[in-house]
Amino acid sequence: MKHIPVNPAALPTPSGYSHGTLAGNTLHLGGQTALDADMKIVPGGIVEQFRQAFSNVLTTLREAGGLPEDLVSVMIYLTDIPDYQAHGKEIGRVWRELAGPVYPAMAGIGCTALWQPEAMIEILGVAVIPEERLVRPSR
Hints:
Radius of gyration: 14 Å
Number of strands: 6
Oligomer: single chain
């Protein structure tokens, strides 16, 4: 089985990584921080960073024909777990706005730092996309 990189034009051009890798109908979604189109981490705190990072994940998912309900697991790396917990209700509202009421298997993992020093969150995941919707990007 050939692995196919998935790199949406709407996201910053990757160098040395892919935003996603399609293996069969399973899409492995690379870690996304809150980078915007200008390659800057969005300001405003954990809720805004969650919105941007999760939107970036969903952009890659949609590029391969996936929908949020195709997510089977999501891992969230956090530099400040208490801050995330304190804003949990707001983050939950953002999740439901972007992905609906379906929640995959999830993990929240504390870490000391992320690739961009101002990043507070990085989200990655795995999705299984039904064949009838699957889009295999050309290399």
